Amino acid sequence: MGGNSFGQIFKITTWGESHGKAIGVVIDGCPSGIELSEEEIHLELLKRAPGRAPDTSSRKEPDKPEILSGVFQGITTGTPISILIPNKDSDSSKYDSIKHLLRPGHANFTYLKKYGIFDHRGGGRASARETACRVAAGAVAKKFLASFGIFPKATLKEVGGQTSYEDLLKEIQGEGDSLGGIVEVTVPMLPVGLGEPLYHKMEALLAQAMLSLPASKGFEMGLGFEAARMRGSEHNDLFIPGEITETNHAGGTLGGISNGMPLVFRVAFKPTSSIFKNQKTVTTAGEPATLNLPEGSRHDPCVAIRAVPVVEAMAALVLADLILLNRCSTIQF
Amino acid sequence: MGGNSFGQIFKITTWGESHGKAIGVVIDGCPSGIELSEEEIHLELLKRAPGRAPDTSSRKEPDKPEILSGVFQGITTGTPISILIPNKDSDSSKYDSIKHLLRPGHANFTYLKKYGIFDHRGGGRASARETACRVAAGAVAKKFLASFGIFPKATLKEVGGQTSYEDLLKEIQGEGDSLGGIVEVTVPMLPVGLGEPLYHKMEALLAQAMLSLPASKGFEMGLGFEAARMRGSEHNDLFIPGEITETNHAGGTLGGISNGMPLVFRVAFKPTSSIFKNQKTVTTAGEPATLNLPEGSRHDPCVAIRAVPVVEAMAALVLADLILLNRCSTIQF
Amino acid sequence: MGGNSFGQIFKITTWGESHGKAIGVVIDGCPSGIELSEEEIHLELLKRAPGRAPDTSSRKEPDKPEILSGVFQGITTGTPISILIPNKDSDSSKYDSIKHLLRPGHANFTYLKKYGIFDHRGGGRASARETACRVAAGAVAKKFLASFGIFPKATLKEVGGQTSYEDLLKEIQGEGDSLGGIVEVTVPMLPVGLGEPLYHKMEALLAQAMLSLPASKGFEMGLGFEAARMRGSEHNDLFIPGEITETNHAGGTLGGISNGMPLVFRVAFKPTSSIFKNQKTVTTAGEPATLNLPEGSRHDPCVAIRAVPVVEAMAALVLADLILLNRCSTIQF
Amino acid sequence: MGGNSFGQIFKITTWGESHGKAIGVVIDGCPSGIELSEEEIHLELLKRAPGRAPDTSSRKEPDKPEILSGVFQGITTGTPISILIPNKDSDSSKYDSIKHLLRPGHANFTYLKKYGIFDHRGGGRASARETACRVAAGAVAKKFLASFGIFPKATLKEVGGQTSYEDLLKEIQGEGDSLGGIVEVTVPMLPVGLGEPLYHKMEALLAQAMLSLPASKGFEMGLGFEAARMRGSEHNDLFIPGEITETNHAGGTLGGISNGMPLVFRVAFKPTSSIFKNQKTVTTAGEPATLNLPEGSRHDPCVAIRAVPVVEAMAALVLADLILLNRCSTIQF
Fold first, then answer.
1. CB D145 within 8 A of CB D153
2. CB-CB under 8 Å, D256 with C107
3. Which of B318, C9, D26, D127 is deepest in the core (most CB within 10 A)?
4. Which residue of chain B has the CA closest to A231?
5. Can you tell me the distance from the alpha carbon of C119 to that of C281, in angstroms, rounded to the nearest whole number?
6. In whole angstroms, how large is the CA radius of gyration of chain A?
């Protein structure tokens, strides 16, 4: 329970609004004995920081995380790890002119309807800023995974349907428009046995994790939707002596449990909803209006770009959890 | 916790192996006051029953569900609803000849590695027979939803990449091969506000539900992967006065919360792994072998066909849960 | 979530009404590799069966449990273990004459108010019959614990305030009255480290488990309420070299985590609410009435007597869960 | 899951060590629409603050809470409420001289064994300082409850077995010793129907909540252990027309669900383990040693005194959760 928590054993709870004082994450269930420093977390955060890559928004947050608990003398203690990231560079005033407008593709309409109140500043809780907390928690999960030789790796596969997309991005940015994209994760080495039955299959948890990301619209495992267009005789991965399977169409699991082949999955992201073109909309009172983003607003032309480290972090969180859960699967461990 | 449970408030736990005495589901958290009969559940079960549709496997289970608790004088009482479905037509002997073979696309390899033991008969716990329990529970969820005027509807969109596929299916069946397919769900009328923040977004829970199904390989919401190839100016659904949005590319949610537009998502299924062609494989001892399905084995040429009512049931379960959770979102209900 | 479930990893869900077709329990999270038979569970069930001990009610249920899933060739497989216990000897007609009366000490009033409907037959879901499911699940937990050399043992300490109470019981039974009692659990050998921080302290989970039992009114750990009347210099258990502590006033935990000393706690049970004396009450419509239990009704003169194996079972369930959770506490296991 | 979380819907997660930078709590699931200020939380925190009451330890923490998220324009928004309380007055150096000693009644032994590492400073995670987070969260729960006219009230009933105890306390403090005590909670007005079946009975959740408190050793509901020494004809609360029951021996629930009578329960606390008398102990290396608390150490002579507002806070958290859960009990709400 709790829509702001994820994980069963290695469990995170994130909190914070885009333009509040800070955002943060509490990790409850991280095992003791892991070396951990603020610097390591900071390095991961820099990967998703805006204003770092040429094609991302220009908001500049130092994003210096503070570890407030759960680490003693540089080692995790088994108690909750609280990580706080201050919001330093948030200028909410820019949003004042549009606060009464429903923003296409944004959550202000639904949050207002559901809760009767919405901290609209910078997108509030629904802002992608929350993903910094996921990356911070993912940094801890990665340290745990590294000790087992497990290294999830996310890469950008497509932007706007192109695998080579630099020119397209510049063009679209010039037009004030945006593009969707696809991120792929591979985990080359995974032990057999990770994943729980049925509702906590590896791919079920990964799918939940990925569709919980802002702007994500799809998930596919292994060949994914392509598999739906194949024959069994083509798709089946045949077992071979001395190794595992000849092909890896399944993407690394059988029955939801890792089979020792590389884990492979993809996540689809819609184009950034905030564009620098006028859009027809309505006010919160239901009147027709036009949305014109305030000058100086900062928005990525393609959210998939900055999603890369976030997707990687979520994969790490799922895997860390499944490693711990797997310790409970048989009487002899 | 518990890989065999799904849901937060309206919560199901399924149990049972394909060739055990019975399978079943316990629903904990179904509200009181819902009319419910065994007949209604049976009617839903018949939709997924094998041997009913011309293109499905010929195993014939009466699948007569027994409601063992939680219903009094035809009305749910708020206590757990236990539904049992006997396994009548299970002939395990046919599987004896192949019990020492790793079956391509099947879970016997990973279950054996994870648990050290596997009830291989008919696929055991990993069999699609478990989905009968989901359909039974979904039947209860649908009764609940109906009282709010909510009717999820799943349809088969594609088989083997074709939208018209009868001939292809017969052809493939003649060859002993199988096909993948795509199932689509639409829910025409949904109140605004369903879905919890972040990790329990409507689409996150739907994705978990759908990727927990046997043979499912992908999930997409609204335009899904197609959205990843679009521009923001094309993809954004514009708000319009007096209605909600002009288009419904998003598929019915914003920020993970229903926006009042129809819910639309799709699920990709791989081709049935069990095919009637010889396949190279290895034994559980690691020796090279050939898998030749025993004569009289029953397997669907396309699992997506029988998945239709199961996908619908899982959608119903997610929606029932989110309606209940939404009662807790504000102080005034 | 789910008031009918208990446990985090080794998790049970019980279902069933006293006079329904059957009652049962699903154990999700029992590790694979445990030998288990219906006979072993039956033996545990016989310990709580009515009509066995001279001072318990005369309802005779064979209470033959059926294991419907999760066990293959006599060994647990890691999949859910579904245990069903038929209700054979339930004569609901006796309750017809009192079904419109609020029964002092019973739950029919509160269930009716909460749910608007109540299966009153034999106490329905609120009946102590549900505890048979706990004993069945506890039998499985005990098998798991036994492999670690852990044997929880519950004994009856007091009935009606007396430690020697046979005569008192007969007397009270002759009067148609009932008595309260106290059950004590000791677990001689426990490894250090069981129990999770704060809200899942060993004693917190035990307290929840015990107060979830019908008729239980109190829980105390170690010296319990007596400790509240002591000085620190008396109560503190001093550490001694080569052993653990000199005394065991704490009852086996420090900071909620087992310290290697015997676990000791007690549970208080109120006197059976059903007595064979006329009691003033009101009808469900609010009219004054007199409750006179129907002739031939069966009720224990002291619920604490039959609670002994149930308390033991709940202790076993908590311990099994904590052993599994403890496998996740440090990176090196 | 997660030993540092409590609650199902209104769910808290606490974090922080006694002498770390800060402690805090995240509330996930607090409904929107509640007025909330830092001042209100501060006022609650002052009730448990050391150095305020004459008989409590002299550590002085301003305990000024910061609300970092979840509140907008003074109103809760339905998103997680993160409350941070800085640790200002923590002098860890005093503990250096005793850091290698096992402290009787303390958790350093068990935490070290369980996790292999322990932030011993000021008791680390096992310190009662964590209860400030519970009080902060309880302040929010109380605001929610107040809107329903529900006001839980905790009082100190006994210290060292005495109901009048001021002189005894001074005496014991002079001797450097400590005393146990008993706290009682009453909630005069509760709607009927709060509490979930079986494992989430009102008293089961209260018992878990109370035994999760540092130094608590017992819980009893209504007459509690006294009930175990009574007859049914004495203990039964008889229903009376136009009201609820004549007496309230049960303490406000039937079958674990509130019956409209006042809620009454008690919690037993052991004497403070830290005393200013020399105590024999052993070092973490197993050598005999003497524990002599460093001069200037600050410890309450009776933890039950400062536990009063914490017990009240935990009661408020349980009730808030049960009110929300009860919204899901029937189809018509």
1. no
2. yes
3. D26
4. B179
5. 20
6. 21
Q: Which residue is closest to A201 within chain B, CA to CA?
A: B212
Which residue in chain B has the smallest CA separation from D322? B328
Whether D57 and D89 have beta carbons less than 8 Å apart is answered as no
Nearest to B29 among D328, D331, D333 (CB): D328
Distance (Å, whole) CA B317 – CA B144: 10
Query: pLDDT tens-digit profile of B271-324?
Result: 999 999 999 999 999 999 999 988 777 789 999 999 999 999 999 999 999 999
Q: Side-chain half-sphere of D154: how many Cα atoms within 13 Å?
A: 26
Task: Name the minimum distance, in Å, from the CA of B13 to any CA of chain D.
Answer: 16
Q: Give me the residues paired with residue A81 across strands.
A: A27
Predicted complex ipTM: 0.96
pLDDT at C220: 98
* Contact partners, residue B26, CB within 8 Å, separation at least 6: B12, B13, B15, B80, B81, B82, B83, C4, C13, C15, C26
**Degrees to nearest 5, angle at CA B167 with B164 and B171:** 135
If DSSP codes are grouped into helix, strand and coil, which group holds residue B38?
helix
> To which residue do tokens 């209006």 refer?
A289
- Of residues D79, D144, D333, nearest to B327 (C-beta): D333
CA distances from A79 to A34, C206, D20, D120, D279 (A): 12, 21, 12, 12, 29
**d(C-alpha B326, C-alpha B202), whole Å:** 12
Closest residue to C68, CB basis, from B22, B69, B114 = B22
Percentage of chain A surpassing pLDDT 90? 88
Nearest to B275 by CA among B295, B296, B301: B301
Is residue D331 within 8 A of residue C116, CB to CB? The reply is no
8 Å CB contact of C80 and B114: no
Structure tokens at B305: 């066909």
Q: How far is CA C30 from CA B272, C1, C4, C71, in A?
A: 30, 19, 17, 11
Query: In angstroms, what CA-CA distances link C227 with C156, C203, D178, D280, D291?
Result: 21, 15, 11, 20, 22
Q: Is the pTM of this model over 0.95?
A: yes
The answer to which of A295-304, A318-327, C18-27, C249-258 has the lowest mean pLDDT is A295-304
pLDDT in tens, D218-257: 999 999 999 999 999 999 999 999 999 999 999 999 999 9
pLDDT band at A292 (very low <50, low <70, confident <90, very high): very high
Q: Is B207–A205 a contact, with Cβ atoms under 8 angstroms apart?
A: no
Residues 6+ positions from D196 with CB-CB distance below 8 Å:
C3, D256, D257, D322, D325
Facing residue for B69 by CB, picked from C15, C26, C73: C15
DSSP state of D296: T
Instruction: Supply angle C-alpha B288, B293, B299, rounded to 5.
Output: 135
Inspect the interface and report whether the beta carbons of D328 and B31 lie closer than 8 Å.
yes
D43: closest CA of chain C, how far (Å): 24
Element (H or E) spanning C46, and its range? helix C38-48
Q: Token pair for residue D145?
A: 């409850």
Give the residue among C38, C39, C59 at the shortest CA–CA distance from C50: C59
Over B96-127, what HEC string results? HHHCCECCCCCCHHHHHHHHCCCCCHHHHHHC
Helix axes D303-326, D202-211, angle to 10 degrees: 150
Distance in angstroms between the alpha carbons of the first and the last residue of chain B:
29
Contacts of B101 (CB under 8 A, 6+ apart): B281, B282, B283, B284, B289, B291
Alpha carbon distance C101, C103 (integer Å)? 6
